[in-house]
Amino acid sequence: MTAIDDRMMGIFENLEVPEGVKAELIRGEIVMMAGPDMVHNLIVSAIQHQTPYARWRALQTQDLIISGEASEPQPDLVVFERGAAPEAGRLLSAAAVTVVVEVVSKTSVHRDYRIKREMYAQGGIPAYLIVDPLKGVCVLLTELTTDTASGTPVYWSERTTKFGDPIQVDLLDVILDTSEFQTYS
């Protein structure tokens, strides 16, 4: 990271965000957005409640730190194995995360499908689930590999499932029920 990245992280860590506003540091840029739609929140809640509690921690809006990135994204949901990370502090290392979930909004399409896909692969997160209430689909990205042309980590496997169909998430040993997922009005 550069001195500018360090200064931006310092500014971000001391940023006073108004209530109801979410803020993330994405590749050196502070991104602020209004609170999410109810559709968004119900999807995140449904996934969280289907995550087996005995083995996994599923946390909403947990700040991540990704090695080599001037970013502190705040995914909609992170899932990590109990005991894989300290249970205190503001930042969770991406290296401890097994699955990260983002629910797409009208203003986050590019970030969720492109930028965060690259960042989460860079962070070594084994699975990235994109839930898209605009299109009514879920996209599960898995099987990290190295892109031969760029030398960067990428997700090799991409499975798209429409809302209503189950999603097999092998890493969590769970089949997610998406029958209650709704699209935005």
From TrEMBL:
UniProt protein name: Uma2 family endonuclease
Residues of the Putative restriction endonuclease domain: 12-136
Signal peptide range: none
InterPro entries for this protein: Nuclease_put_TT1808, Restrct_endonuc-II-like, Uma2
Pfam families: Uma2 (PF05685)
Keyword Protease part of the UniProt annotation: no
Keywords: Endonuclease, Hydrolase, Nuclease
UniProt superkingdom: Bacteria
Organism: Kitasatospora aburaviensis
GO molecular function: endonuclease activity
Claim: NAD is one of the keywords in the record: no
